[in-house]
Design a protein that fits this description.
mainly alpha, 160 residues, disordered C terminus
Length: 160
């Protein structure tokens, strides 16, 4: 529970940073945090964190509840499914999964808002979505080694 609340705090902080410091196309730091949490804690906890993070995003943007809840939960589900079927997990695989999950996230939010709200995203160019995915992968490449938590053990010091 402590890790869950810590990551929820990180999500609030990342939303604040995204709103305050970035202008235009921004990386989706929340997706990166959800993917890392799902890899560390498992699919069920990741989906729960994804749904809560999506609810926070949906309540702050003021359109409709659901699109971000669905897309963030799906991101955690896909990350957990891929993680369960791989023997090794490293920074490259994490970046690849974040790219896939980010593309699915953008697509699900686009479709949900297009169908269920009056907000039209037809004027948003494909270049903005691709740029957002690239920025998100760059954020994943920076954040994964920092939040991975694996420390290298010095065998010389461990023996003494």
């Amino acid at each position: 529970m402590r890790h869950f609340l810590l990551y929820l705090f990180f999500i609030y902080c990342s939303l604040t940073i995204q709103a305050g410091f970035f202008d235009g196309t921004i990386p989706d730091i929340v997706i990166v945090l959800i993917c890392i949490y799902t890899v560390k804690r498992g699919q069920v906890y990741g989906v729960a964190l994804g749904m809560i993070a999506g609810l926070v995003i949906d309540t702050t943007n003021g359109l409709i509840l659901g699109p971000n809840m669905l897309s963030k939960a799906m991101a955690a589900f896909l990350t957990g499914s891929i993680r369960d079927n791989l023997f090794q997990w490293n920074t490259f695989i994490n970046a690849l999964v974040v790219a896939i999950v980010s593309a699915v996230d953008v697509f699900l939010v686009f479709i949900s808002l297009e169908v269920f709200s009056n907000a039209s995203f037809l004027n948003r160019s494909l270049q903005n979505s691709v740029t957002q995915i690239i920025f998100t992968v760059a954020a994943a490449l920076i954040m994964y080694p920092l939040l991975n938590g694996k420390r290298k053990v010095n065998l010389w010091e461990a023996d003494h």
